[in-house]
Amino acid sequence: MCILVFGGSGFIGSRFIKRLHETDSSVIINVDKLSYASDQTNLDFIKDDKNYIFYKKDINAKDEIREIIIKHKPKCFINFAAETHVDNSIESSYEFIKTNVLGVQVLLDLFREYHSETKNNKLKFIQVSTDEVYGDLSKSDSPFTEINRYSPKNPYSASKAAGDHLVFSYINTYKLPLVITNCSNNYGPNQHREKLIPKTIYSALNNKPIPIYGDGTNIRDWIYVDDHCDALIEIINSKYEFNHFNIGGNCELENLSLVKKICALLTDKLNNNFQYEKLIEFVNDRPGHDYRYAIDNSFIIKNLDWRPMTSFDKGISSTVDFYLNKYQHE
Ligand SMILES: NC(=O)c1ccc[n+]([C@@H]2O[C@H](COP(=O)([O-])OP(=O)(O)OC[C@H]3O[C@@H](n4cnc5c(N)ncnc54)[C@H](O)[C@@H]3O)[C@@H](O)[C@H]2O)c1
To answer: Would the pTM of this model clear 0.85, i.e. be above it?
Structure first.
């Protein structure tokens, strides 16, 4: 049996394929349209493996994806394919709606068709989503649980919330075995340079200003990407029929403290006494910038055999090593 991964050539998808390949002998099919955010070199370790097949396709190409499903008969669909950069969604939300909403609808209809033809109740569809759909929190609010109302505040989170609502509606209407996961901010290898951590390291190495929105006090809850992927693998293998999990790393940090920590690690690792913090430049805040996200992950910890295993200090140190190596060789 095989696992059908959509968006496996991006940041989290490529780490998911790596973790899955290390722990499972299933055939892995990766369907990705190879947008600017993808990087096929992330998958060099598996590209020649007989248990790995890649298709360059858009998730909206319904007939072509149906053919892939008929040919490979997957036991599980997992969808990472999305437009993911909030700043781009503020420039224009068109591509976000096409992939994060209409694309999800295409995959759901294909899964519905496949489920009704095979009558296989062991099939699963996992929609990988974000904590941003819940909106934002004040400092004193409790972290998001699975029963928080969705209240997205920017076009990216609104498009992800719309995709998730379609999934909830298909669970309710068609009684399909679909799961939604809402995860906090991921960090680790393979992330596109537009995102905060790689951008900070790239700017520092190139002696460029390190931009921070507003006053840097916005808070994000960070999880090491492999911990997220392990939670998804646990959900795929679990016998339980829960439809909704929050996944988080119990690690809230202000953006400014995160960037300062990276600067200190760079000085330490490059052994050069340069104070990279001097490159920090506060820039005009992102319009509608959410103040704080925080995930309560007690439901998944209670019900599945999973918890975040990577301490922030260990994860951020190996992440900095990864980008130092990557950017110093570019
Ligand atoms: N990065 C995070 O911190 C985070 C946190 C929680 C949830 N998520 C969710 O996890 C998923 C993956 O995020 P990421 O950070 O790896 O994103 P990413 O931008 O790094 O990768 C997205 C991948 O999807 C592909 N893709 C985009 N549109 C497509 C389409 N129409 N058809 C086929 N492929 C398409 C891209 O080519 C790329 O390989 C997204 O759904 C995102 O909303 C991300």
So the answer is: yes
